[in-house]
Specification:
7 strands; alpha+beta
Length: 157
């Protein structure tokens, strides 16, 4: 399936909210207020994936003083297993690295086996468990060290 990545635009907000509601249970999905706050957060960036002339997924990241954080990655069910989530993650990691980030952190529910497998496949490792991170659910705190763009170029040479 063909898809393209682009920067978030304010006109995307309602669609991103709907996608987040579709991707997560009601007690985990973001409220409009929370989603808006993450998008406006200093150092936040959002990459949007489009397929079939519609927004199909997105990833919000944050860069706080050189520390990277994945806020959320959401891909609609019908677009999963197409490489879209991986492409979103690679682009976010590339952007964070270009802005000086060397480590990216995130949390993911311990009972979400497909999400845990996705993060592990992409090199994220558990730092431990955060009890009751989500309502009634624990989360793995995960981390990945990334290389600077210059280091990546040297590796490829």
């Amino acid at each position: 399936m063909k898809f393209t990545l682009r920067d978030y635009e304010p006109a995307d907000f309602d669609t991103l909210y709907e996608i987040d509601q579709a991707c997560y249970p009601a007690d985990i999905a973001y409220s409009k207020r929370d989603l808006r706050a993450y998008l406006r957060f200093s150092g936040a960036e959002c990459v949007v994936a489009e397929a079939l002339n519609t927004v199909a997924g997105f990833c919000i990241s944050a860069n706080q003083d050189g520390r990277g954080y994945i806020v959320t990655i959401d891909v609609l069910q019908q677009f999963r297993r197409t490489g879209m989530g991986s492409a979103l993650l690679r682009e976010v990691e590339r952007r964070l690295a270009a802005n000086g980030v060397r480590e990216i952190r995130l949390e993911t529910a311990t009972d979400n086996e497909s999400a845990v497998a996705f993060w592990q496949k992409h090199g994220y490792r558990s730092l431990g468990i955060r009890k009751d991170y989500y309502p009634g659910r624990d989360a793995f705190a995960m981390s990945k060290t990334i290389l600077s763009p210059a280091a990546n170029r040297k590796t490829l040479e």
